[in-house]
Every structure is written in structure tokens, then in C-alpha cells.
Specification:
The chain is about 30% helix and about 20% strand. The chain is α+β, with helices and mostly antiparallel strands and about 600 residues long. An eight-stranded antiparallel sheet has the order 2-1-10-9-8-7-6-5, with helices on both faces. The longest helix is centred in the last third of the chain and has 24 residues. The relative contact order is 0.18. Belongs to the beta-lactamase family.
């Protein structure tokens, strides 16, 4: 399983670069926390309109007719519509520049002593915009021919990226009606037990008197998101003479091989680290248990158990590897010499190339794969239709969600199932699964908001800086391309005789700046502002992109508070009123026309 290294965090060091500046801004806001009267007044108004409010102390004193100027802060910035998943860019000047920058960096980086090889790709639903191999396949060989080269078909141990496939298998079985996310594990594995006692009682031998309340069930969802409270590695690693040791704790050998019996025995013996749904505790043992539960659930649902997969590796092969054509993905060193000859071997830690995993330990980190296979998986995950994938597009939307958020010290990190989620400086979430085992480092990162992902496989001791450089190179390019597509599709003045609408990109988000219908200034009307008062100014209204392409909701919010910070007031006010059979806050593009159906108006570009 993984060591304590977390390459996924390095992958998004790009996001950390601005944290200090944001913290200073946050502290300034907190200094105004004494404005209790303002908060109470806002809360009263929010309740009146059925809106939940969170308070940020840069709010002005509320008045129904409030004056604004051009410096009014626009809040609750909604992401631009993700056109890149529907029209993925493969050839664009910005992508060429980004590729050149990254290639130059990686060509030098692979020469460092801590890296033997790198296989890397930046992927869109339509294919790769960057795909390279660097270094050598077998660095300890003496001739160039035997050392080999790296390409998309080179095979690596992917360590904990395996967990992503284990959760994917759970979702596949759920969609077939074989199990549910919130099924207790005991439904499929009645032999599972876990204690209610804590460490004080365990160490004193008084294991039955500490807690009398019945323990809550451990569910499949909890296992998939590290929320079950089960410890990291079972059976645990031991340091006999701790702390008198010459090596750090994470250098102790893995507890392999693991059997299902030894895993269940350890879970039954040792106190949970935390109560289920307390906070996430990274758990290889929990994922081993999830894989075993998947197999058991599939067997229980079959009338011909002997014809069903009997292990995790067989189940994943049937449901994921074979349907997607992943011919370089497996869990045991293959007999096929052509496959064995493509396996990357690190110069240090090469013993892990073929270390024995078992059916019980495979689900947490036993998988091998290639860049080409992971590119295939990434393309299906990013596709707006999940075409050729093994789960549907709506399952992907459900899957790419956080379950826990770390809130201390301004952290932007979240945990999903099994995602390690971090944020870019503009709060764009990136869903990562990283892997790290002696000599092998892997990363699978999705940026669904911009329609691309990063796959990184390497042999060596570290990949510090590599993924960070990749995001630094390509994120600005995708931002530029997305804005270009959005401008072509939506931005500009739209007219219909004396009716006018103006759509703009402001601070990287899409806004409606003007909407006049039959002489009525709709934004002024909704915001409770007098249009003929020179001291007042309407605030642009954010366009919230929906799952339907070209359709948006106007984030009006309740009237009278257009600069109230936060998103909850907008969220709670969507779909409040209708006109002509349609919500007054809906607009959509139909062909080359902008339609405002509640007023019966169709605009064309001015």
C-alpha cells in the first residue's frame, strides 16, 4: 500500500500558491465580526424570503434600495459552462505552447537522480493533447537495448490508484441492483465484527465495559470514502522496540501477504480509529474489505455462484478491464512475456515490481496498468455522455462529489470516494487519486470543470514538481480556450426590436448585464432598484449553467440585496416565479437565438 507520501498534494501545489494572500483577506473580514446588528437584520430578511444565509463581514448595511457603483463586488461566481467536454480542443496554439513548456521541463527533470522514468498524458474526452514518455524502462540494465524506452504501453504498478477501480466496481454493481451504497458490510459478510471499546480498555484488557451503546453499521459508502474508522493497514505493522529504531515508522515492511481471515481478525481485534462518519481515516484495510464485499455481493446475487468471479481481480477484469479493452491492466505478474517485457522497473525498490499481493489485499493497491489504459479510462470519465464507459454520465456526476471537507487553517482539501480533492486558486475542484509504493508513483487527476485530466506514472523516489508543472502549464491554456468558446456562443448584445440583452464575461464568469423587455428594465425590477435614479446601479446577474447545454438560470436572489456575499441566497431563490408557463429566471439559446420564455422574447445578436 502507500507510504506516507502524498503526491496528489504536490500535484496541486498550484492551488497553494495563493493561499497566504487569501488568508490575509480572510482575516480582514473576520475583524468586522462585531457587526451583530447588521447580521441580525440580514437574517430577518433571509427568513422572510425563505433563504439561508452565511455571513461574510464585507457586507454593506442592507437597504431595500441600495446604491452601488462599478466597484461593487460580484459574489458567488458560478463556473463557465463546460463547453470543452462537448467540443474538446485537440489543436490550439495555447495547447502547443503549454506542451512545449512541459516537455522542456520534463526532459530535464527525468535526468535527476530521483527519477528513472515518466509516462504522462493530458487527456480530453476526444483524446490526448500531451502524451510523452521519458527515461528508461529498466535502468539497472547495462545496454541501451535492454534498458528500453518509455511509451504509452509501458506498464507500472499504480499502487493506490487501484482504489479508484475498486470504487468503480462498487458503482457498477450498484447500478445492476446487486448492492446499495449504504448497505452495511455485514449484509454480504456476516462474519465481520468490530469492537466498541477504545484503546484504554484494549490496553488494560478491560475490553467489554467501556462502551455500552450499539456500534453503528459500517457501510460500503463509508469504506469507499475512508469514513468507516478502520485503521490504515491490517494486520498492522510492528516496531518491536519503538521508539528505539534506526528507521522512521513508515519504512516498516508492508503486512503482506494478507488473507481475508487475517484482515477480519485484525478488524475484530483493534479499536476503530474513529467512529463511522466521524472524519476520514486513510484505510487500506477498509478498501480491502470493500473489495471482498463486492465479490460477496456479486456471488450472493447469482443463482450460479460457481460461474461468477471468485476474487476481486476476476470481478474487475469482467466488469472493467474487458469492456474497456484494458489489455495492460492486471493484478498478477503475467505469464505473457510480451506484457512482462513492458513492465517498468525502478532502480531502487525494484523488489516491489513483483511483490506478492493476495486476493484480500488487491483492492487497495495491487493493480498494474499502463498510460494507454488509464487514458482510456480518463476519456470515458470526462465524456459528457460517458460514451463507451462502464457507468453512465449521471453516475459520474454523483461520483465526483466530496463527502468530507477539511476546514482547519483555510484548507481547500476535501475527501470523496476515494477522491483526494483539492482546489485551484479560483476554487475549481480537481479530483485526484494518488498512489505511492516503493519505487512507483502514480496520479490520476480529473478537472471536469475544464474537461481535461492528467495521468502520471513514474518510477523513482518522488515526482515532486511534475504534476504541479503540468497543471501550471495547461490550466491557463484551457481557461483561455474555454473563454473563447463561451464568447463565441453566448457573449455580446442580443436584440429584438426595442428589447435588449447583454451577456458578458466578468472576472471569469458569465453574467447578464442588461435585460430590457418592452421598456421594462428586468434587472432593476428584480433587484428593487429605481432605473431612473442616477445614484443607483443594477448589479450583473450570474448565469448558472445547468446540465442541459445552452440553458441557464439567472441567479437573481431575493430582492434588495444584490451584493450580499455567498451562494446560499441565490441557490434558495432559484425557480421562485413563473411567467407564460416558464420560470422568470430561465434563459436558453436555441439555434442562433437567445430565448427569454417567461416574457415571450427571442433575441438575435446585435
Amino acid at each position: 500500500m502507500d507510504s506516507n507520501k502524498t503526491p496528489q498534494h504536490d500535484a496541486l501545489g498550484y492551488a497553494a500558491a495563493v493561499n497566504q494572500q487569501q488568508d490575509r483577506s480572510r482575516r480582514k473580514k473576520q475583524m468586522l465580526i462585531g457587526l451583530v446588528c447588521t447580521a441580525i437584520a440580514l437574517l430577518a430578511v433571509a427568513w422572510h424570503y425563505g433563504v439561508t444565509v452565511t455571513f461574510s463581514m464585507s457586507i454593506s448595511t442592507p437597504k431595500h434600495h441600495q446604491s452601488f457603483n462599478s466597484n461593487t463586488k460580484l459574489t458567488c461566481r458560478f463556473p463557465l459552462p463546460n463547453l470543452l467536454t462537448h467540443s474538446p480542443p485537440l489543436y490550439h496554439e495555447e495547447l502547443k505552447k503549454a506542451s512545449k513548456r512541459l516537455d522542456k521541463y520534463l526532459s530535464k527533470r527525468v535526468l535527476d537522480d530521483d527519477i528513472d522514468s515518466i509516462a504522462i498524458a493530458v487527456v480530453t474526452p476526444a483524446g490526448t493533447v500531451f502524451e510523452r514518455g521519458y527515461g528508461v524502462l529498466r535502468p539497472n540494465e547495462t545496454t541501451a537495448q535492454r534498458r528500453g524506452t518509455i511509451d504509452a504501453n509501458s506498464i507500472y504498478r499504480i499502487a493506490s490508484v487501484t482504489k479508484m477501480f475498486t470504487v468503480l466496481e462498487t458503482l457498477i454493481l450498484r447500478e445492476r441492483g446487486i448492492l446499495n451504497w449504504d448497505d452495511p458490510v455485514e449484509k454480504f459478510m456476516p462474519e465481520l465484527s468490530y469492537p466498541s471499546y477504545g484503546w484504554s480498555d484494549y490496553m488494560s484488557g478491560n475490553k467489554l465495559t467501556s462502551y455500552t451503546d450499539e456500534m453503528p453499521p459500517i457501510t460500503l459508502r463509508q469504506l469507499a470514502s475512508h469514513m468507516a474508522g478502520i485503521g490504515r493497514d491490517y494486520p498492522p505493522k510492528y516496531h518491536i522496540n519503538w521508539p528505539n529504531t534506526d528507521s522512521p515508522p513508515w519504512d516498516s515492511p508492508l503486512s503482506l501477504p494478507v488473507s481475508s481471515e487475517s484482515l477480519l481478525s485484525a478488524i475484530a481485534k483493534y479499536p476503530l480509529v474513529n467512529s463511522p462518519y466521524g472524519y476520514p481515516v486513510y484505510s487500506n484495510a477498509g478498501f480491502d474489505l470493500l473489495g471482498l464485499a463486492n465479490v460477496a455481493a456479486n456471488l450472493n446475487a447469482s443463482e450460479s455462484r460457481d460461474k461468477e468471479p471468485q476474487s476481486h481481480k476476476e470481478l474487475v477484469k469482467r466488469d472493467i478491464f474487458d469492456p474497456l479493452g484494458l489489455n495492460s491492466s492486471f493484478y498478477r505478474m503475467p505469464a505473457d512475456s510480451s506484457l512482462r517485457g513492458r513492465i517498468a522497473i525502478p532502480s531502487r525498490g525494484h523488489g516491489f515490481t513483483d511483490i506478492l499481493y493476495t486476493d484480500a489485499s488487491d483492492p487497495a493497491g495491487g493493480q498494474y496498468s499502463s498510460l494507454a489504459d488509464l487514458i482510456t479510462v480518463m476519456k470515458t470519465f470526462l465524456s459528457p455522455t460517458a460514451k463507451s464507459g462502464v457507468v453512465s454520465e449521471h453516475v459520474m456526476r454523483e461520483w465526483l462529489r466530496p463527502i468530507h471537507e477539511w476546514t482547519g487553517s483555510g484548507s481547500k482539501e476535501q475527501v470523496g470516494a476515494p477522491w483526494e480533492i483539492t482546489k485551484l486558486p479560483d476554487n475549481t475542484p480537481v479530483y485526484n487519486k494518488g498512489g505511492d509504493i516503493d519505487g512507483y508513483v502514480s496520479l490520476f487527476s480529473l478537472n471536469p470543470q475544464y474537461g481535461y485530466g492528467l495521468v502520471l506514472l513514474a518510477t523513482g523516489n518522488t515526482t515532486v514538481g511534475i504534476a504541479n508543472k503540468a497543471f501550471n502549464s495547461f490550466q491557463p491554456a484551457f481557461e483561455t480556450i474555454l473563454q473563447e468558446q463561451v464568447r463565441r456562443a453566448y457573449v455580446g448584445e442580443w436584440v429584438d426590436y426595442d428589447n435588449t440583452a447583454v451577456v458578458s464575461i466578468i472576472e471569469g464568469a458569465l453574467y447578464l448585464e442588461k435585460l430590457v423587455v418592452r421598456g421594462v428594465d428586468v434587472l432593476s425590477l428584480v433587484q428593487g432598484i429605481k432605473p431612473d435614479d442616477p445614484k443607483t446601479k443594477t448589479v450583473p446577474v450570474a448565469l448558472w449553467s445547468l446540465n442541459r447545454r445552452g440553458e441557464f438560470r439567472l441567479a437573481f436572489g431575493p430582492p434588495g440585496y444584490p451584493d450580499l456575499e455567498g451562494c446560499l441566497r441565490y441557490w434558495a431563490a432559484i425557480d421562485r416565479s413563473y411567467g407564460k408557463g416558464a420560470p422568470i429566471d430561465v434563459i436558453y439559446w436555441e439555434g442562433d437565438e437567445l430565448v427569454y420564455p417567461s416574457a415571450g422574447v427571442r433575441f438575435r445578436r446585435g
